[in-house]
Design goal:
Four copies of one chain form a homotetramer. Chain A has 14 helices and 13 strands. By secondary structure, the first copy, chain A, is of the alpha/beta class. In chain A, the strands form two sheets. A seven-stranded parallel β-sheet of chain A has the order 8-7-6-9-10-11-12, sandwiched between helices. In chain A, strands 2-1-3-4-5-13 form a six-stranded mixed β-sheet. In chain A, α2 runs parallel beside α13 and α6 crosses α8. The two termini of chain A are 39 Å apart. Chains in contact: A-B, A-D, B-C, C-D. At the A-B interface, α6, α7 and α13 of A face α6, α7 and α13 of B.
Chain lengths: 341, 341, 341, 341
């Protein structure tokens, strides 16, 4: 029996960043590799091997002209973790080639940080540290005038995908009633998980703590604007954990700046944020430089998910770990990455 | 049947701070009240009523001279939440008078904050916010050089009382292996709760995140000193959540200042901390002005616990909610308060 | 320092039944022992040593005449697990002698069985096995005409002590709304645990599955009688897990026999049940010969609890594991054992 | 905009058995229906409408000759819950037609019963009831000679699909170490769920309680035979919850009959089991007439899952609730149903 051939083209991720030693060993055992690191694999190199390849790991350009030659190809796993224009998805769907991404690898890292930030906003942790450094702190009860317990507070989730579900697991002991809005997830699934399905307006207007996990699609850019921010109850906490493009960012900053609600954000319309940008000094805003997902452990999980599904696929079984590109939605997601780096 | 007589002497806590409307209504239904607010109840007022009183709620002075007259007294509930020298405990033990304090009322508030601070130290939340305000932030992976996941990290608890157990409930979904040191709690109880009993040295030397919840007793002042801090692994996180007196504070600051480990503290040897105290500018220290416990909701829980046990006691049943003064330990606790605010 | 003296008088339990090897080793390390097995320790033997004893483990007769000589005695731990007339409790309370029993050792064993029996009644497991042995089974949907899901069903607890709390932990993933009735437990504690406090009538009339865990006291014999059984909704499941004396047993059997509700019982007014007793052939009754608690593992837990508290007591610390005799309730419990063998 | 057309052909399930009132209302709102009940929809009726149909709900014959006319068809949802030969799967895969089945609807019903039966085998519940009816019961400890605690026992899962995961959720508070064998599920997924992946031999030889949830495939018939049963430790409990064909049934009965291990089975090679079949009188076997899954509530869940995905599909979104037929495995599953009832 011939060993499978695997094209390994992980750029922009160094292999060592996504495969730890144990995972690398399992990867190496899968077959024979055509590997290129440090840049996108050169076209000539791809073309020389594509006809023999069982599996592509990477963001290799795979339009129809190449795919027609890839008679043995069973799956493409994008370890950069986005569904980009590099692939002819329709060809893949018609020909039974799985297109996968281990994007959920970031979910636990983001969720842990999101919970920490939610407690921070509720209890004023960073703000109180700053006051103490400035010599303006208050002690005990006086220091908690604006604090509230996260425990028992009404939580709202905008987006109920992998990030939200990881957060939900972590926040479970806080006994918070949880509502979620996600037009791609049926009530049935939310209710099974103990979450109340709700409209966006209901989530915004009835929650004390609002987590935004919704990725950007072709349709939802800026869907949180002046009208929506106006629905949020004064004194609530709003955490933007996904993409800056889902909010009208200037309006968002206006509301936080006026103290209408407190907020945390991990994302900004332009990154790095320009020096001197007023966002850097808003008192009620907890600032995070797009760093909630990018943890070494999360990257190693990209490798683990990749190998787990690769092992199944090469045994002739369907993948069950990575996200699958879906005929109905891939074009809506394609325009912009939805996952955290 | 005559209605019970209750002496209500809540100073230094205003009644409205510990009894919300619903609890106050249940309290009022319990009997007839002799009430004094705004200062300690005057001696004459206590003496005029003590012979008829079934229950004392407060920190009223109750030495033997008064207690011998209190023939009907069944319980004393100290709503300031400390066992102080105001009471002749031996007399109470001999005569079946319960001495109680709803000190666990602060446990959830402290635990929620402690978890938030632990995530903060692990993921660098406050430090990253500060860097972004100073214009020196790093993005993505580069911003997480010193970060680690709390999920799965080895957790050590110094003290396994109410605070630790509340923290344990909240941290359960993080799948952290947990060790605890508490000379007053048997292995049996820890193991039943899924915690590994350990020596102090083992907790310090093997944990990535160390929570100190131990109260001050006559015997343990400064028990965390140079030798003990030396056992903590570099890069760990240390959270002081109980009393400053359990650590050698200057040595503690020395270790954190040198970057040996990162830390958070809610308590200080002198409060308020003097302006200009160098503690205010230690980079690796998360500062909290004795505010993790003093939440309005925690104070209302003092009232709820008080009424719950008072209702039982006046029905001739034993109290089951508040902490009970114990013959063996009350004198060790008495010298100094062990509860938060 | 002299080693503590411990009087070990475990009858009617053989030492080997309550102390496994590991626990026995810890026990032996506690001090010097005066031990008698196989029968109650002879009076002369007790009298010869009582003046020097720090701790009694057993159901030794300790009336005032003996206790006055027991100047060093700090605690009595009854490993038969009942508070009997053998002890002068008032003397103990006045003199700070703890009277303890590791009765909660049976809680997990009873709870596991209770959950199994509840699923059995809901889903008809034993009844369906019997039908199949008799050749009268029905398949699939037809075999489930009288079945209901325990998951999501309204659960009622009569008694909210150790047994009920163990059951509550095991049944948590079934997402059942739970109400409890227990006049000795305040609403506060139930609500903290996620249980709705309710009157006995409400528990009986609104629950689909009713667990009776209440022990017998001086006051509650036969408190579940014709009126109470009449409140139970047709088709419900009723599980008697504590003592036969809390129900009017003939009336109970009448209701089950008529098919008014289905039931399980672990206890009977006379044990062993006479041969030919009609209780043995009631179709809707799941029969258990007082065997839900008496598991070897539960008995070893008696030993573990005993040693855990003995260790604390001999170090001068208060016990925290065993149940403590309480001034207010011990006389009500004393008349009859409340724990499972 | 034209309303979607839905072909509703639910035979052999009556509509009222799978759609409760609330679900039926949501179903009816989805579009215009071509409905046939009581038998398979006549060919002429299917042919008359297939060209206009957006969705088929049922086990309608859909070979290539029909599918080529079904230009608008987006999905087929088989509410009988098996992937049968009625469909040309390759055509569907190539043309982006989802083939779905709400088979996981039975998972909770089976899991609840499986847990009840596992406690039954561990604690001897049905056997003890039978003894008491026969007048041969033993009381207390004597009645538990063969009993063991499920709590803490080593659990093995053969098959880690929906049934196993539901069981896992229910058994979580029992603190059992769990191993699982499933060649279609990667280690990664099991480990994330807190289950240790293991070989079949390891699961069989190291578990005290073994649940068989594996469905029948083209490859695994009779994979539990003499060699495998020989690996099971004496005194263990073995529960057959999926299909009789996965075990060598006579050998299975031989082992149970000799008392080598105790067992429960919900399935039999021939159903109904013939009168007089010796299986009906094996002492150590808990008998269940294929009734663990077929609960009314489980059937209504078929309806809910169907409507949840139908709503998504008709909005142009991918289904996320039902199981999807997979190119790699559907032919292996097709030969025989794998779901209950």
């Amino acid at each position: 029996m011939t060993r499978p051939k695997i094209l390994l083209d992980p750029h922009p991720r160094p292999l060592a960043s996504i495969f730890n030693a144990a995972t690398r060993k399992r990867l190496d055992a899968l077959g024979d590799f055509i590997t290129h690191e440090g840049s996108r694999m050169p076209d000539a190199m791809v073309d020389a091997h594509i006809a023999d390849v069982d599996l592509v790991i990477g963001q290799t350009r795979l339009h129809a002209d190449r795919l027609v030659k890839a008679k043995k190809l069973r799956a493409i796993i994008d370890v950069e973790t986005n569904f980009t224009d590099a692939i002819d998805y329709d060809y893949c769907f018609r020909n039974g080639i799985h297109v996968l991404t281990p994007g959920a690898a970031f979910a636990d890292a983001v969720a842990e940080s999101a919970l920490g930030m939610a407690i921070d906003l509720a209890r004023g942790i960073t703000a109180a540290d700053r006051k103490m450094r400035h010599g303006s702190e208050s002690y005990g009860l006086d220091g908690n005038v604006d604090s509230f317990h996260l425990m028992g507070s009404a939580v709202g989730l905008v987006g109920y995908g992998d990030l939200a579900r990881s957060l939900h697991r972590l926040i479970a002991p806080f006994n918070c009633p949880i509502k979620a809005y996600d037009p791609w997830v049926p009530d049935y699934l939310m209710q099974r998980n103990g979450v109340a399905p709700a409209s966006l307006d209901e989530v915004l207007s009835t929650s004390k703590v609002i987590f935004v996990f919704a990725g950007v699609t072709a349709e939802n850019q800026g869907f949180l604007g002046r009208r929506e921010f106006g629905l949020i109850r004064p004194g609530s906490a709003f955490l933007l954990m996904s993409r800056a493009a889902v909010v009208d960012f200037p309006v968002f900053l206006e509301f936080v700046g006026k103290g209408r609600f407190r907020a945390a954000t991990d994302v900004f319309p332009v990154e790095p944020v320009p020096q001197g940008d007023p966002v850097r000094s808003i008192e009620g805003l907890l600032l995070s430089a797009h760093r909630t997902g990018g943890m070494p452990e999360a990257l190693f999980d990209i490798g683990r998910q990749t190998v787990a599904d690769a092992e199944l696929i090469l045994k002739g079984l369907p993948p069950v770990v990575c996200r699958k590109a879906q005929r109905e939605t891939v074009s809506r997601l394609r325009s912009k990455p939805i996952d955290k780096t």
